Amino acid sequence: NSNYWGARGHLLGHGNSIHNPKLSKHSKIIDVECWTLDEILEHYAPGQHIDFMDVDIESQEYNTMSTFPFKNHSIRLITVEVNHISQKKMQSVMEGGGFVQAPMFPIGGDTVWQNKSMLEPGKRYSKPPFKPMQ
Predict the structure, then answer these.
(1) Which of residues 10 and 24 earns the better pLDDT score?
(2) Which of 23, 60, 81, 90 could form a disulfide with 56 if both were Cys (CB 3.0 to 4.6 A apart)?
(3) Cα 14 to Cα 5, 117, 132, distances in angstroms
(4) Does residue 77 share a domain with residue 103?
(5) Domain count, the chain
C-alpha cells in the first residue's frame, strides 16, 4: 500500500497512529530494518562528494537532520521539506551544520541550503551559485 511510510522501525499509516483506538485493533506492528541517513551515505556513497541531496521524509526531517553528522560528508546543496516543522528550528540545524539558506527560495514547502565552504568568500549571491543543467 503506497499510503505507508517507515518511522522508527515500524510501518505506520501516513498521518495515523498505532495508538489510535479505532486503528489499533486493525493494525499490526511490523519490525523493519532502518538505517540512519549517515549509514545510507556511508554504505552507498562512501567518501564521495554529493552535489545535491533532497530530504523529504514525511515529518522526520528535523529528527534526521538534527542528528546528521554534517562534518562526515561533502554535500553542496540540500533541500529539506519544512511543511511540518518550524523554519527557525531547521535553520538552526542547517546553519550549525555549515549551510546557509539559498537566496530566492523556498520552493513550495522545501528550503534549499548551500554548503558555506563551497561559496566564494565575501561574494553575495542573488541566485544559486551554479549553472543550471542544459
Answers:
(1) 24
(2) 81
(3) 6, 37, 35
(4) yes
(5) 2
Residues 56 and 114 in one domain: yes
Q: 82 lies in a domain?
A: yes
Pick from 66, 67, 65, 42: nearest CA to 54: 65
Q: What is the domain extent for residue 13?
A: 1-34
In a domain, 39, yes or no: no
C-alpha 119/C-alpha 98 separation (Å) is 11
Q: Rounded to an integer, what distance in angstroms lies between the CA atom of residue 6 and that of residue 133?
A: 33
Clarify whether residues 52 and 15 are in a common domain: no
Q: What percent of the chain has pLDDT over 70?
A: 66
Output the pTM of the full model.
0.68
| C-alpha span between 42 and 36 (Å, rounded) | 10
pLDDT exceeds 80 at position 109: no
DSSP state of 117: G
Examine the domain organization and report whether 65 and 92 are in the same domain. Answer: yes
How many Cβ atoms sit within 10 Å of the Cβ of residue 61? 22
